[in-house]
Amino acid sequence: MGGKVENVGILAMEIYFPSQYVDQVELEKFDGVAAGKYTIGLGQSKMGFCSDREDINSLCLTALHRLIEKNNINLHDIGRLEVGTETIIDKSKSVKTFLMTLFAKEGATDIEGIDTTNACYGGTAALFNAINWIESSSWDGRKAIVVAGDIAVYGKGPARPTGGAGAVAMLIGPDAPLVFDCGVRASYMTHAYDFYKPDLASEFPYVDGKLSIQCYLSALDNCYNLFCQKMRKVDPTFKGLLSLDGMLFHSPYCKLVQKSLARVSFNDFLNATEEQREQQFPGLSQFSTYQRADTYFDRDVEKAFMTYSNKLFEEKTKPSLHLARNVGNMYTPSLYGGLVSYLVSKSPDQLIGKKFALFSYGSGLASTMYSINICNDMSTGSKLEKLINSLNENVAMLDKRHSVEPQKFSDIMQVRTENYHSAPYEPSGSVDVLFPGTYYLSKIDDQRRRTYDRKL
Question: Which one of the listed residues 250, 254, 322, 375 is annotated catalytic?
Fold first, then answer.
């Protein structure tokens, strides 16, 4: 296609979350736990969930169709469609092939890409695949679409309040309003049994809670320090967190994100010279000899650096948690829900020219930190203005959801559990409560073939 393309990134986004939620305060009462266990301890307010009417295919179809509709996308202009998910309902047939039903109607079938899976990291891997394609010699000049979606459900017990569901669809191409930095991605990949799903007859994962937190923070340490090294090669004046306008994280639950921002500050402290520590980190010198690997559960370190970083958290990270707090952990779309939340929290003139770092994590484990720059064009009708206006419409749907009593929520979850992988099967969940334009499962036949309809 000639010369190297410039400013590859996100041209448009669409995020979808379920139309039903359970209030975490009510769930605390229903579960008989101490007040604040979910709302303060986890930092969660509401949790979105799906009845048996929605599955991973329907979630992704809904987000993709909305992206196509709202942006008047010519389907023949799409050359790659990537999907990231860990919600597996077929060991062979990909979610991407279901999404192709939207393209095949228009005769658009020359589209590369397929599903990518590794816990919550699959969406980021799919995004990198799309960016790499556009920046490669294989690119044919067309745009790419990335869809990330999941349904996060847990059995009755302490993990259930950390569930959620959603999907995000992103249009990727050159000359984008959200541009990905080149050459500074920092990854950390290793083996761990912190969270995994070996039982294919169940939606529920096996989780080692303490190990999962340790793995997350260890991956963050490794990615952040390598990211800073790579950034300094490009910009010798780069000063870590202080040089970033936003710091976004994959969000299993909001409290962990706040602790993660404190962890980043702890890393900056350890990397600083003695003189820099005295100037930038007053009153924290007692931690100078601490080792990262020994401090994942050190309450003194955690408390000291959460206090130190509180203002930085309020400015650089907390605005990204609006969707996470009100929907829950969406797994692969979680980080991108954070990006959406941050973008709609500011006025357009506050966003132009800003730089964000994003930390993506998937158990097992795979992780990457990378950065995005926001373009300087905020003129009327610009790509950035259109993107932000569209995302504001998305986020406004939070207030149009239906609140469900905890007992009814529990009953709906039980129906999902009892009928997981049943065939033939006709879902019993309400179609009336779904948002207009939502795809839903109409039936599964005796050959386990799934049929979908769309609520008008």
Answer: 250
- CA 14 centroid distance within chain: 13
Give the Cα separation of 68 and 439 in Å (integer).
Answer: 14
- What CA–CA distance (Å, rounded) separates 199 from 201? 5
How large is the average pLDDT for residues 309-328? Answer: 98
Q: Is residue 120 annotated as part of the catalytic site, yes or no?
A: yes
350-407 per-position pLDDT tens digit: 899 999 999 999 999 999 999 999 998 877 788 999 999 999 999 999 999 999 999 9
Distance CA 55, CA 234 (A): 43
> Do 126 and 84 meet the contact criterion of CB atoms below 8 Å apart?
yes
C-alpha span between 127 and 258 (Å, rounded): 25
| Average pLDDT for 291-313 | 97
Helix 334-345 vs helix 383-396: crossing angle, to nearest 10: 110
For 98, half-sphere exposure in the C-beta direction (CA atoms, 13 angstrom radius) is 27
**Residue 19 CA: distances (Å) to CA of 59, 70, 339, 341, 402:** 12, 20, 21, 18, 6
| Backbone Cα Rg of the chain | 22
pTM surpassing 0.90? yes
Contact (Cβ atoms closer than 8 angstroms) between residue 50 and residue 163: no
In the chain, the amino acid numbered 64 is L
Cα distance between residue 78 and residue 450, in whole Å: 26
355 phi and psi angles, rounded to 5 deg: -120, 130
Q: What is the full DSSP assignment across 310-325?
A: HHHHHHHTGGGGHHHH
Is 259 known as a binding-site position? yes
Indicate which residue of 60, 120, 223, 254 is catalytic.
120
Asked whether residue 316 is marked as a ligand-binding residue, the answer is no
